[in-house]
Amino acid sequence: MRGASVKTLPDNPNLDHLRQQAKDLLAGLRDSDPSAALADAQASLAEQYGFAGWTELKAEVDRQQGRADVADPALARDIAARYDLGQVTGSMRSVARADEIGRRWSLETDRGRWAVRTTDTWIPIVDVETEVALQEAAVGAGVLLPAPVRSGSGAIVESIGDHSWRVNRWLRSGPPLSAPVSATLTRELGRILATVHGLALPVDRISPWHTMRFAARGWAEMAETAGAKGAPWAAALADAVSTLEDLDSVAGPAAPGLSDAPPVLCHNSLGPNNARRAADGRLAVVGWEHAGGQPPSWELGDALTHWTINPNGGVNTAGARALLDGYRAVAGTLPPLGMGMFAGAVTSLANYVAGQLDHALTARDEEIRRYQDRSVRHLLAHLPTRAALERLLDEAVSLSAG
């Protein structure tokens, strides 16, 4: 669970994509408030990108136009040759700033368009062949995703130039989704989750990201450090300490962990940002690089927090019930229910928040520091609460009993 992290504009942002994101978001807002207008969705989307309003967001889009980086043509040709992609027909351009895996690029050849990315900072939870086997099994079960491409030697990851690379087929789709997501799409997401869980591919452990706290310091100590260093968000962190500590207790020994259920190999990071509406209207799932093990109830709890809690803490109950209904329609039943189903979600949230705080305090580049400070302020202002998780559990229990 990444929490309500600030969205990142692509390197060459498209205003039409933002308008589509706002329309998709409007459908989710209207599940809870039928009177919601497009202006409300635009304002919410701008806030999720870390801007005060739609006008400010549009101005940033204008500022970033044409800022995509262009790769060395020789590198593009080497990648195309290594993966047998055909003859390069245009520049290889960056898609977005580097993330925790690497940087994404777009490459066009006479055989089509390809999603290319570096994997220099990628720390996989399972080996790449296990991850690809999950994708292949998911495709066989009807899940739509951009298929991974093997090189001429049969490898998924290749060292080319100064970087490690991997390639996927380009899937024509719309922009990433934003919470709260409409009930129509959350129902489909529930069906996808149940389908992947139903594959029951074995895995030897639960993802450490969902079971271990990596930061040695507590929230209060982190707030003191931020204050001492003059971080612009230090006061916001101090105000959020009680909420973060309350969320920590959800994963504590007093909460039923439901961890007696064996983990299955799953996507492991299936938030709205890793989903797209494909050209045919279906939900496409991207971002399989973090595949790992979770008990089905944990990943279901994680999906509920990402897809049905809006950035201001409200719960889209229609979306939550649709997600659960879609899951049950495929699986026949819901996995074990209890507050423990959110244990993995709150642990991964704690790891993400701590990591963002550290990045913001240590950033050297002015542009990166500006982004990180904006991201942290947004994240701390939009944390989920125990009350929201309890409401989601009530919905799940009610549907299960119905």
UniProtKB/TrEMBL annotation:
SUPFAM superfamilies found in the cross-reference section: Protein kinase-like (PK-like) (SSF56112)
This protein's name: Aminoglycoside phosphotransferase domain-containing protein
Cited Pfam families: APH
Sequence ranges assigned to domain Aminoglycoside phosphotransferase in this UniProt record: 98-331
Residues passing through the membrane, by range: none
InterPro entries hit by this protein: Aminoglycoside_PTrfase, Kinase-like_dom_sf
